[in-house]
């Protein structure tokens, strides 16, 4: 059995989802109908920080938090907003955006290049510290 490379899965997902550049995201930061969603592992947030105002939704829980019928549903995902997903490099967020689109969420995009591209562009970041 041949394994499909993850790079192909990401490329296929990106054919079916909307991708925003860092500049497109920066231009929409003041839009209260846009919600940034950091899907990275919490340890990545502790090590690297995050984008101010981003909601943290770990990749492993995302579908459960989005589904209004799930016992784990989060109110933030029940609002009419455009959800802008990001991860470290844009691969996980592309796959996550595709999964959410497949669930029926139409207002989901992801950031090309992820948090790495954001940071390299000089985008604002905030420190995230572990909760004690």
Give structural notes.
The chain has a domain of 91 residues: 3-Layer(aba) Sandwich (Oxidized Rhodanese, domain 1). The relative contact order is 0.23. The protein has 6 helices and 5 strands; from the N terminus they run αβαβαβαβαβα. It is an alpha/beta fold and 132 residues long. Helix 3 links the parallel strand 2 and strand 3.
Cα distance spanning the termini: 46 Å
- The proportion of residues in beta strands is 5-15%
Instruction: Assign the CATH class of one domain.
Output: Alpha Beta
If you average the pLDDT, what whole number results?
96
Strand order of the main beta sheet, please? 1-5-4-2-3
CATH topology of one domain: Oxidized Rhodanese, domain 1
Short account of what is shown:
The protein is α/β, with parallel strands linked by helices and 132 residues long.
List the helices and strands and how they pair.
Blueprint: H1 6-14, E1 18-20, H2 22-27, E2 34-38, H3 42-48, E3 55-56, H4 62-66, E4 82-86, H5 91-103, E5 108-111, H6 114-120
Parallel strand pairs: 1-5, 2-3, 2-4, 4-5
Helix pairs in contact: 1-5
């Amino acid at each position: 059995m041949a394994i499909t490379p993850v790079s192909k899965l990401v490329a296929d997902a990106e054919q079916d989802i909307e991708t925003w550049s860092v500049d497109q995201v920066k231009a929409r930061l003041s839009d209260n109908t846009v919600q940034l969603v950091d899907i990275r592992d919490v340890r990545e947030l502790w090590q690297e920080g995050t984008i101010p105002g981003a909601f943290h939704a770990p990749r492993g829980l995302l579908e459960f938090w989005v589904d209004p019928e799930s016992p784990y549903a989060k109110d933030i995902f029940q609002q009419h907003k455009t959800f802008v997903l990001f991860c470290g490099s844009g691969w996980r967020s592309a796959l996550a955006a595709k999964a959410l689109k497949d669930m029926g969420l139409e207002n989901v995009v992801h950031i090309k290049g992820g948090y790495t591209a954001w940071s390299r562009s000089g985008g604002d970041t905030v420190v995230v510290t572990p909760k004690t």
